[in-house]
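Notes to self after the Tuesday call (sharing in case useful).
The group wants a holo model before anyone commits to mutagenesis around the pocket. I volunteered. Ligand is 1,3-dihydroxyacetonephosphate. Logging inputs and output together so the record is complete.
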Amino acid sequence: MRKKIIAGNWKMNKTLSEGIALASEVANMANDEVSSDVNLILCTPAIHLAPVSSVIKDVANVSAAAQNISEHESGAYTGDISADMVLSTGAKYVILGHSERREYHNETNAQLADRVKLALDKGLTPIFCCGESLETRESGEHVNFVNNQLKESLHHLSAEEMSKVVIAYEPIWAIGTGVTASSDQAQEMHKSIRTALADQFGAEVADGISILYGGSMKPANAQELLTQPDVDGGLIGGASLKARDFIDIAKSY
Ligand code: 13P
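Result:
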């Protein structure tokens, strides 16, 4: 059985007090309303991680995640955050390779390969993001493009390591635009990702990997996406900033 995961990527939103309030609202609603087999993950700004981890600590199916880590263990890397620092807050997951990081910070597939490996070595679960631009989709190259992202950032892992990774497919043209991928488009890409993972790591590993969809997911479209056979969860941006919407998405399976 693949894990059902609804992850909220807060991006660069919420002051510390606002973030703590949101996390505690989510924790309370999760307790009352969300099935225990749905895992909720709050991907908060780094400075929120420790207090948010403390607010959610008694709710078994709510965890915290960082939005990035350095590929270096420690040292003179001003402004960066290490895997050990993230772990020391109580967070268990880290988003790696979000398209906004790739675009605005020039993160490369090779750099992400190092970060994925370091996260796994340290015991943090990577949520590895992939996805194509509108131009790439319109050229018909989207499947090849995403397969290449997987190849260059994940193929150095062992099957056992890969079985611990969560994938998020986020078509760039659907992020923050209000335009979501259709359920057919999402299913097609998720199936192709699973097939590519099976070719490299074996069918058993590929069958166990949770593949999340991200891009304008909201309560109104979540059910249609989450009921696709290869869509195991969601990585939610805008709609994760309101506890009610985030929880309603988690109730859409
Ligand atoms: P939106 O849900 O705001 O489109 O953002 C998706 C996303 O980038 C999550 O990581």
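Two things stood out.
The chain has a mean pLDDT of 97.
The pocket of 1,3-dihydroxyacetonephosphate is lined by residues 9, 98, 170, 175-176, 214-217, 235-239 (CB under 6 Å).
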